[in-house]
Specification:
By secondary structure, the chain is an alpha/beta fold. Helix content is 40%, strand content 21%. It starts with a helix and ends in a 9-residue tail after the last helix.
Length: 215
């Protein structure tokens, strides 16, 4: 679910402007999962644009507090959301921790890095939601550490049905600055893509794991 429509449209436009999101239906990308995709999103690029990263920080800060109430701690998901998560924590005057995909193999073998007390209310900041599996590993780690996870806030989601189901099953509220639907609407309106390319992008979104696979 998006925080609000105005933010969703503005965020989508900014991501397209700086090529954090690239749309290429004619020459698809290959994801790490092996999926073929006409879209690629790399929100780490946001950190290189001060005005845009500040916009994302401010939208996160006000909407997190509005939606979840002010938490005790902000957690970022490693590695993509560490930078923006720190900015949000600084803006809200809150402690920050980050969550690794798995515990370290050496030293203290931490998965949650930073100071976190059992019972503290935590909001997780994430950069991108695809299936939600990796993001929900962070939820599991924080809950195992005794945190009360109030919810997750992400920059962008592809809006896959499987992600919605995964978050529902994990009992985690997810809100995003923008999503796939608002991105496509804006991309057509601003002529980043043609109506034919929009149709291809919508087709992919319905079945991303099988799209582009020769039968």
């Amino acid at each position: 679910m998006i925080f609000n429509k105005d933010t969703a449209e503005k965020t989508a436009e900014l991501l397209l402007q700086i090529n954090a999101i690239k749309l290429n239906p004619r020459n698809p990308f290959t994801w790490a999962s092996g999926w073929q995709s006409p879209i690629y999103c790399d929100n780490r690029i946001i950190l290189s644009f001060p005005t845009i990263r500040n916009y994302v920080r401010d939208e996160f800060s006000k909407n997190i507090e509005k939606q979840f109430g002010k938490p005790d701690v902000i957690a970022g998901v490693a590695t993509g959301a560490i930078g923006i998560g720190m900015l949000v924590a600084e803006s809200l005057g809150l402690p920050f921790v980050y969550v690794r995909p798995e515990p370290k193999k050496h030293g203290r073998q931490n998965q949650v890095e930073g100071f976190l007390q059992s019972g503290q209310n935590v909001v997780i900041v994430e950069d991108l939601i695809s299936t939600g599996n990796s993001s929900l590993l962070a939820v599991e780690a924080l809950r195992a550490a005794g945190a009360n996870v109030k919810g997750m806030a992400a920059i962008f989601t592809y809006g896959f049905d499987v992600a919605q189901e995964n978050f529902k099953n994990a009992n985690v509220d997810l809100f995003t600055l923008s999503n796939y639907q608002n991105l496509l609407n804006l991309a057509v309106a601003k002529r980043y893509i043609t109506e034919e390319e929009e149709a291809t992008l919508r087709e992919w979104n319905l079945s991303p794991s099988t799209w582009g696979v020769e039968k």
